[in-house]
Amino acid sequence: MMLREILKDCEFIGDLRSEDVKKEIVKVTYDSRTVQNDSLFVAVKGEKYDGHDFIQDAIQKGASAVVCEYKYKGCSLSKQDETSYISFIKVKNSRKTLACISNNFFDRPSEKLIVTGITGTNGKTTTTYILKSILDICGKETGLIGTIQYMIKDAVFPALHTTPESLEFQKLLQDMLVAGCTHVISEVSSHALAQYRVDRTSFKTAVFTNLTRDHLDFHKTMEDYFLAKKRLFFELLSRDGTAILNIDDSYGRRLNCELRSFSKEINSKIKILTCGIENSADIMATDIRNSFHGLKFKILFSERKYDVLSSLIGLPNVYNILCAIGAAISLGVPFEYIIKGIEKTKTVRGRFENIDVGQDFLCIVDYAHTEDALQRLILTARESISSTHDPNVSSGLTHVPRIITVFGCGGDRDRGKRPKMGEIATHLSDIVIITSDNPRSEDPLKIIRQIESGAVNKNYLIVPDRKDAIKKSIDMACAGDIVLIAGKGHEDYQEIKGVRYKFSDRQVAKSAIEKKLKQKE
Fold this sequence. Notes:
alpha/beta, Udp-n-acetylmuramoylalanyl-d-glutamate--2,6- Diaminopimelate Ligase, Chain: A, domain 1, UDP-N-acetylmuramoyl-L-alanine:D-glutamate ligase, Protein-Tyrosine Phosphatase, Chain A, 3 domains, eleven-stranded mixed beta sheet, globular
């Protein structure tokens, strides 16, 4: 593809030479290690490394064009050499330009697909899987981009990021298009929005699940966090697209007001569907019954009632289902298929996942790693105990069922939430085991002490080794108890000092339960 086609609609500083625009480019990359002859290298400044420091390396490997923000270090080329065969394109923001370049290089794939973006602090992953199940029931060929994995129809690929860098994102969309997909569902993280990873993507539907404290190590304030999420609806949603908003969430209500004003101001055809349980909305859930067997409730929409059954558990999943219903409605899916798709949705890996090996207690692995998610997890467990354990009816149990919570907090992330999560866990659980999560570059014991500082009861133990902590919780569990292992969910590694060691909460819990059952034989 010629350089002028790759740079179409991209903003850059100065003019390009005639010989530059005619240059044939065979590859676009922001990683100097993957440069080959006739590549376009985009120098992006990251958290750990600055791509500008690798421009010389990229040129030596064959890059014929470079996008950069400023003069790079260590280049030994003379000015004559520099201007003779290397095309330098100066821009204000390399990462933003990368999104434009990537979209062009892969021939604007989102314009030929129906793309749904789902954003929010919690619930993105589960909502994407519910919506995919609904579209599958309809016979739609669907791709999925998210935290756990990427899917192109039935083919599954490991996910490196919730939302990949723009180059990989647009490549995924193109691959989905080539494979015959008509629809794409993508989680859209706040990092992705702040770093322009999904810019130039045409979203037909945008979903807002909720917004609670998280990622303040990156965004610094909740306002900045909200503004990043807001970009999906104000800048990336098609002007004839649909926004699905959870208005039981205060930020959802704010987004609803601001988006309506904005849409009216620019005279767009953006449609808004609100959903909720507590507040009057377009799509509402009522008569909710929750147990460890699943959910049963009614949906009110357009003056009609629909019965919903789901194997998913807990009030947070009612909201996830509502958001998925809104997205499905916006995509023109008949309600009979929506209901069937919800019923067909299985538990998402690492999302309130029951590790069942035949034991007489419950063991739940969940990704909850924020204050709100941890609170909702424990309250869901508490509610489920209440719904299945009537103190007036003999259940054969020798004690009142307890909630045993195992959790830690990730290193190099928002430190402010650590004591708050310690407070929530010790207040709502019967027993808490504070342990390590992904300590990354931090001292695990320092993280644990920060969590401990928020404890409001003395009902906790400190077991720094996560494997030992999980084993301890399983050993402590009696009939009817619920063990909650929170924070890592689907992850199959533990990151310590820059190294990712193989580790799975699910596998450790399963092995510990099996060992306990064998000892009882």
